């Protein structure tokens, strides 16, 4: 290297690689043994590795193009002209692997960075750089597109646009380009690129300038909304426990629905990002899976209770506190989710938790252990609602509007139907997170489930409002009389009086 005399303005390393490329270009039919190719290629990669990236990036792109040509021609020298397929493979310390057609060179990102992709967005290299060539020919066009599967450098998809690109070398202009390449499929682990020509390929992630700020704002909105939802869930739980309810109303399913949602959202808020300890993270993911599934099961049980109540109504009976007994409700409400979580953990225990968050990962489609039961519950819920409305069509039509039985029935149906859409259908938005607006909508609707339950089942309930008034009246009297009794004591006396 020290004996070389490069032209003015060119480094010795660049001059060395250029001469090597010229020698290989002048001998297109040369056949080299694997040992020679390994030695020469290792030398070329070492020389390129010793080059410091230029501040302006110009010489960096030129060095990358020359190194790619040297690598491709050296690998091509392994294939004899009569061979249609080569089984020879060469490996070097600085290189992943190379064969007759495909090659992956480690460390090329510093020479061919994402800054060579012209866009207004922020860019990031999201895969290794691979080359695909046909030996002994310069023709790169293909009669039909071929697919390349590129693994992601990060385990979970980041917010942004994944773009399949190839290295375009037009003399003095060298850059990443999307011409002839499209992303045909992508998940959290890999992306399939479909390209109509052979070249050097990579994945580039594009994010908007304000992407980081939007992400921070989204986190703050989520934090505030979840805290508000938790507060109202807590008020709803206290109301269901302490208030005196109409004997016709069975609040067992509704109470445990609120408990499951409260625990699930609280744990999700404080534990979903606790990925430092893999065992703890897996436990958090499993508990979240259980509580969220329990919430849906309790929602289904409330619909079943409504169906049993309506079945008695169609027989012109007085609305009574009927339906499944409490112990059966508890057995189903917590037993069914426990079975699903137990089976899921037994089939694929590594499905709980990942390096990014303590939730279900998508390996082996494990997320369907939650999505599947949820979809089944929502479908069954919808069928039950249709059956209920069909059964009541004649009964409600014949009832006079001032009959309390009709009023109670219509109100119950309205509340639980609205609850079905708020608690169930809001989760469907989780499948559509392509825009920022849908993300905010999903966060707001799902975090305010407790707010909805409290408003509909507590504030809009006349008996509960009367109970609140008695609590406040007793509290005010106690304060005026100098007694420092707390609210639970007052509530206890109110319940005893009932």
Give a description of the structure.
The protein is of the alpha+beta class and 498 residues long. The strands form 2 sheets. Strands 1, 2, 3, 4, 5, 7, 8 and 11 form an 8-stranded antiparallel β-sheet that branches. A 3-stranded antiparallel β-sheet has the order 6-10-9, with no helix packed on it. A hairpin with a 3-residue loop joins strand 9 and strand 10 (190-197). The chain has 3 domains: 9-110, no CATH class; 112-209, Sandwich (Chondroitinase Ac, Chain A, domain 3), CATH 2.60.220.50; 214-460, Rhodopsin 7-helix transmembrane proteins (Rhopdopsin 7-helix transmembrane proteins, Up-down Bundle), CATH 1.20.1070. 53% of the residues lie in helices and 13% in strands. Mean pLDDT is 78; it is low at 54-58 and 483-498.
